[in-house]
Amino acid sequence: MGMLVGGRWSCDARGDGVGDGTFRRSESLFRDSVTRVSGRFAAADDRYHLYVSLACPWAHRVLIMRALKGLDELLPISIVNWLMLDGGWSFEPGGGVIPDPEGASFLHEIYTRALPTYTGKVTVPVLWDKHTRTIVNNESSEILRMLNDAFDDLGAKSGDYYPAELRTEIDALNARIYPTVNNGVYRAGFATTQQAYDEAVGPLFESLDWLEDRLSRQGWLVGDRFTEADIRLFTTLIRFDAVYHGHFKCNLRRIEDYPHLSAYTRRIASIEEIAPTIDMHHIKHHYYNSQRNINPSGIVPRGPVPRQ
Ligand SMILES: N[C@@H](CCC(=O)N[C@@H](CS)C(=O)NCC(=O)O)C(=O)O
């Protein structure tokens, strides 16, 4: 997996602490914001660029918001190859890959372009500013919020997925869903002790049971509106049966075993703007082939068979 240390790529260094067997996601470093009003990173046409992986659930959140807000032209993207081995994310040509406009071979070159002495993990998504030639932000939850309204005066589609009156409830849901579900699957999958695995998988399924109950009474997570909370949950659910159930050992139940959660996942997956953002080939091949510490053979399972 590797990381940058003082601006040099190191294949062996690991950014996410696993000393006691527990996976701890490291903090993102670049935390500025593109804003609607004038300022250091004011929203503008042909100024920002987004780097994503189609496999990654965190990047997928941002891709969905970009699609819903119709930002295809305002915010162009590059897509990394699904295979992430010793050099980290790369732009090696392949199906679905969109190269870096400046010709980088690896994503870590974008990080050192911004900060030549950068030390840390090289993750997607990355929001890049072509004017100041820096990374504005590499934290998906924050980029998601920016795209919700930053480009609204420049022709973005209408739609507010983080409405003021629902923020408290959305925040409360995110506060449970992020640690136990979105990151919970990683904590289960990357655990290196039985105890760390047990501590992740229990709360994960308690949360899925709780969400199933909630969705038996309402169509969306918060009130009767599709919001950011749904986007954030969806990107984990759509990967669950194909990857997390087997590869990350989250196998008490499948999403398909939950009538409401599975119907909800299908409903979101069929939204016109969202459907093209889902790439099961990138998703399955990335996890099973790249995370060789978990799956040394790199064999990608054939299933699950899609529901007819
Ligand atoms: N906190 C970050 C996490 C992003 C993240 O961990 N992305 C993964 C892909 S799913 C990544 O790029 N990992 C590269 C690595 O671990 O070296 C966010 O939500 O934006």
TrEMBL record:
Ligand binding (glutathione): 89, 121-124, 139-140
Organism domain of life: Bacteria
Record: active site: 56 (nucleophile), 186 (proton donor/acceptor)
GO cellular component, one term: cytoplasm
Keyword line: Oxidoreductase
Pfam families membership: GST_C_2, GST_N_2
UniProt keyword Transmembrane helix, yes or no: no
Site (Lowers pKa of active site Cys): 244, 287
Domain GST C-terminal: start-end pairs: 163-297
Entry EC no(s): 1.8.-.-
SUPFAM superfamilies: GST C-terminal domain-like, Thioredoxin-like
CDD domains xrefs: GST_C_Omega_like
GO terms assigned for molecular function: glutathione transferase activity; oxidoreductase activity
The UniProt record lists the keyword GTP-binding: no
Record-given protein name: Glutathionyl-hydroquinone reductase
